[in-house]
Amino acid sequence: xxxxxxxxxxSPTWVWFVGLGAGWLLFSLSSVLSxxxxxxxxxxxxxxxxxxxxxxxxxxxxxxFDEGERKLLPKTTRKTKATSRFSCCPLKRDVYAQLRAxxxxxxxxxxxxxRQAWDALVPLRKMPLRSEFLSALEQAPPDYLVGWRYAWWxxxxxxxxxxxxxxxxxxxxxxxxxxPSWLQGAAGMxxxxxxxxxxxxxSLRVLLCGNALMSGDFGFHANESWGSERLIxxxxxxxxxxxxxxxxxxxxxxxxxxxDLPKQATRSSATLEKAGLFEGSAxxxxxxxxxxxxxxxxxxxxxxxxxxRQRLRAARKKGAALKRTLLDLPTxxxxxxxxxxxxxxxxxxxxxxxxxxxxxxxxxxxxxLGDDLMVQLYEVDGRAVGFLAAYRCGEILEANWVGMDxxxxxxxxxxxxxxxxxxxxxxxxxCRGVDFGRTATEIKSCIGAEPEEMxxxxxxxxxxxxxxxxxxLPSEPPKxxxxxxxxxxxxxx
Length: 493
Known about the structure:
Helix content is 42%, strand content 22%. It is built from 18 helices and 16 strands. Helix 3 crosses helix 18 (463-472).
């Protein structure tokens, strides 16, 4: 429908006359056959006026949807597309030509980017934005991730900023409480709900700057001379061009956004309004920063007040039967079936799945990252009951994925032992903190993690969708929880 819309609005004038003529003949014929006692001339004039009114209203509706988006585009991209003298379709211009003229390059594969210069700019702290991580995701993408693009900004022959984009097709069934039931009906078409390729499930297509797999500021990075407001302006410009490219491929993009920006990042409401972006809030990212005096897990444990230290010891005692095994790449591939089954149990309980990770993705990441990715399997009497997966981001351990058999959780205090093991692995690998991601915020605060408020920016194509989005976006995190304080003296972040 989006492609039809674009071709409709861009059609040359003579196409409209051909359409009006065909409509005139059709309505005239029906009038003659069904209105024998009425003047044929009156029927022709009446139906012609009806056809003209119908076309005018139709164009007005489409322009209403599209006007807000067109105002966001640079002036050079608002011009009417050139058409061939012998074709009713607009010529397919290079949507990235204007960007390249300004030193902005776009690629559809990570192999097409200057990887050495890219990685020289991106710090180890942003591992999910580095080329080896992105390469692994391309080779084994999680479910619902159907496309990717990469952009970099050059000035005086050097890369000054980079950004990673993901095209998602998220089935409504995976969003549950986040999507009201009326989106399943006709109103869903207005909001961009369309059948997903392959299974035809009702889905929302989203072009995201960021990484849907993990929580954190992993969408873009620039040198110190760039402020967050400039990054937002540049990212939205590039997203506009990418959306036009995907539309030409038959995958129109209605929603786009920037995922996980620190709340304290400087950005004015005027900048967001001009870009058509609305700011929403989600659950905070839970992070544990080790105190300078902590050099081992024992130091971490000793820093706890008696109540939480007893909880740790009780969890370790209940988990005494858990056999832990750090998996190398061959063993990880052998145990993919067990890991996938444990993954599924966690994913099925999730209220919202932007993407669905799987065991093959972990194997591909292990092949790319080597020892920087740790996958630990838990067994009881030879049966796999859980796993954890984490990777190093400089001095921080990103604790991103867990899977577990919920029947084993109670008897062996499995989830709490997984959280403590993330901390222990961080000490063993010389890290100075752990990022636990979102969800289960209260129990993670019992481990010592503290909340870091993050926001996301989202926009819809067209004025009506923008208004609906503004009303629907939550301004505060949806869940209430109690922040626990397990240490004698809270570690400084």
